[in-house]
Amino acid sequence: MDGAAQREDLRLSADVVIVGSGAGGGIAAEVLSQAGLDVLILEEGGLRSSSDFRLSEAKAYPELYQESAARQTVDKGISILQGRTVGGGTVVNWTSSFRTPADTLNWWRTEHGLAALSEEAMRPWFEKAERRLGIAPWQGEPNANNLVLERGCLALGLRHARISRNVRGCWNLGYCGMGCPTNAKQSMLVTSIPGALEKGARLLTRARVDSLSVDAGRQRISEARISLLSADGLTPTGRKATVAAAHVVLAAGAIGTPAVMLRSGLADHAGLTGKRTFLHPVALSAALMPERVEPFNGAPQTVYSDHYMHTQPLDGPLGFKLEVPPIHPLLAGVTFPGMGEAQAGLLRRFPNLHATLALLRDGFHKESRGGAVQLRADGSPALAYPLNDVLWEGVRRSWLAMAELQFAAGAKMVFPLHERARPATSWKQAREIIGGLPLEPLRAKLVSAHVMGGMAMSDDPARGVVDDLGRHWSWRNLTVVDGSVFPTSIGANPQLSIYAFAWRAAAHLAQALAPRSSPSVS
Ligand SMILES: Cc1cc2nc3c(=O)[nH]c(=O)nc-3n(C[C@H](O)[C@H](O)[C@H](O)COP(=O)(O)OP(=O)(O)OC[C@H]3O[C@@H](n4cnc5c(N)ncnc54)[C@H](O)[C@@H]3O)c2cc1C
Ligand code: SF4
């Protein structure tokens, strides 16, 4: 059903209504519908498929991303990429797949009371997701962009490895961020959402959940209230829908889910709804290489290094993971420093450009408290994420590490993505330039594609919003299954963590709602 096509208001009902069809919502829909439950999925984005994916940035960003890929934190210090289409972020992500690191799980067990989340207990859920989504180490040769990272690691003796990807029959095109045109990427759009629909689930697209209403006496959510959106996917048509359901599953992403709760006025005991939102803020360093790199060509991320994750304690100065981003002209134009002729000169050398990224692990250091989701006057969400000294120190340290690595890999010129950065032609010069850069929002270009937290799990309602199965501590017919449940950042690209946690939460929910038709779970 397409919300844009509805000529009347709708009144619907279901056993379970799922808000959002991304990583968490897709998995939950498949697991719950397989248990025989009547599932209705609500998605504010439109339904697009491989024939719509034309390797075009200009087409993909407005159609497939939140705020046309121009979402930013309140002070504009960090640009945020999130999906907004059937399949959510999984349609546009870069396919890198990591299990939740053991030290993150241990931290959650010791610091957040999540005793059930041992590596051993989580293993079966990771294995299920890996099997379902074809997640396996990438067997092809890394593209030239990734080989720069590998070469730098080898030259400096840094531990590095190949990345696992959720693909089947990948054509190695490199346009994952614009939607996979070959259906090789095992996103929710081509796996769990169709799997759920085959089992009888229904999908209502261009349907934005405004709020949830409650039966306060019974501490239960009674229905979801929805604005139907026109074909542009943004403007309300004026038509409304309501869905009455025995159980509500929130999976609108780590900004969208707290926003639904805030718009509904549904607080939690700890006052943590929409708080402690983490981003893995990403600092970037670009380099001009003597060889052609063609950073737009080939599987985008196939090599990583966790060396700098382990050079300090987990709760010490922020650790960072090194990877490379694919580089396409439109996003490069708004991210790379300089304007006019200076930037045009750089972009003329596009085929020789390389970039390394450092994904900073936020949420463990006591001063790394993340951001907070707020509502604008029209009810749309915005994320305030203050940039403090702990973060800036990590950014500068990561620029230094990346510059050293890029020169070790043979770079002729290196520049961190900062408006004031002059290009350096040697590692010695880079050290001087990076050491003197003012660390301020808007001058340093920081980005994020990993939004996590804001509805944190804890064993204690005084310290978290949901329990380890995503069950809300106050509203017992409400379960959260997206990236918002994580109490800190993951410390690795989060999609596989979300799949596994959503699968575990949904399997337990299926057991509770349909015990006769669901496999037992421990
Ligand atoms: C460009 C890009 C590259 C990435 N690369 C990787 C990668 O390589 N590896 C990795 O692990 N992760 C990657 N990620 C991150 C990963 O895709 C996300 O962490 C993951 O998709 C988040 O899952 P989620 O369920 O929390 O939310 P999402 O997947 O974002 O899904 C939320 C859905 O809810 C919908 N929604 C929001 N509000 C409402 C509402 N009120 N009503 C109805 N629907 C609503 C949204 O439109 C969206 O479709 C990338 C993300 C991006 C954007
Ligand atoms: S690299 Fe593979 S997964 Fe990505 S868009 Fe190309 S074919 Fe699809």
TrEMBL record:
It comes from the Bacteria. Keywords: FAD, Flavoprotein, Oxidoreductase. One of its GO terms (molecular function) is flavin adenine dinucleotide binding. Residues 63-282 form the Glucose-methanol-choline oxidoreductase N-terminal domain. Residues 15-53 form the FAD-dependent oxidoreductase 2 FAD-binding domain. Residues 443-502 form the Glucose-methanol-choline oxidoreductase C-terminal domain. The keyword Oxidoreductase applies. The keyword Flavoprotein applies. Coiled coil: none annotated. Belongs to the GMC oxidoreductase family. This is GMC family oxidoreductase. The lineage of its organism: Bacteria, Pseudomonadati, Pseudomonadota, Betaproteobacteria, Neisseriales.
